[in-house]
Write a structure and sequence with these properties.
2 domains, Arc Repressor Mutant, subunit A, mainly alpha, 67% helix, elongated, 0% strand, 9 helices, 181 residues
Length: 181
């Protein structure tokens, strides 16, 4: 992708996230996005097939960093020395918090289902390697599904109650979910 295409794509993302901060996903049209981004309809469709495609691409970009296996020191947090479940969960929450301005807009309506499907898929990989209790009589696949759904809904709740810190949300989740070692 050349520089011009990258700048256009960034303008579309910026317009889309700006719109999501102001209204729900289901109320945003492609026309709204192209007007806000100041690009033509053909330009939009050269980058994205649909508004849903744009959302899936945005999710992939967000999740690429959110689910990074490198828990290095960052501007807002440092989990580089911790490799336990609480640190992994809190790390994920810190990165989601960076997107809290528009996360409620994504989670409303059909956009929420697109986001949640992609989010849960990523969470499966994280929780499969995060110390689910091996001594549980409950099948591992069931525990994994339960944890993924529970955490995804915790994030949805947090998006509506964002006064809590990532550490608090992590503690709430781990306190109510004693399925990790």
């Amino acid at each position: 992708m050349d520089r011009r295409q990258r700048k256009t794509r960034e303008a579309i993302f910026r317009a889309f996230t700006g719109l999501l901060a102001r209204k729900s996903y289901s109320r945003i049209t492609v026309q709204d996005i192209i007007s806000e981004a100041d690009v033509g309809r053909a330009t939009f469709y050269a980058h994205f097939e649909t508004k849903d495609d744009l959302l899936r691409t945005l999710c992939a970009d967000v999740f690429e960093h959110v689910f990074s296996e490198d828990l290095g020191k960052e501007r807002t947090h440092d989990f580089s020395k911790e490799h336990n479940t609480a640190a992994v969960i809190t790390h994920i929450l810190y990165h989601l918090q960076e997107h809290m301005a528009y996360l409620p807009g994504i989670l409303s309506g059909e956009g929420g289902e697109i986001f949640m499907a992609a989010f849960k898929e990523q969470l499966k990989g994280v929780f499969a390697h995060s110390g689910l209790r091996p001594d549980s009589p409950v099948p591992h696949a069931y525990l994994l599904n339960h944890m993924v759904c529970d955490f995804a809904e915790t994030v949805r709740w947090w998006a509506r109650n964002s006064q809590y810190t990532p550490e608090e949300i992590s503690a709430f989740f781990l306190e109510t979910t004693p399925l990790f070692e």
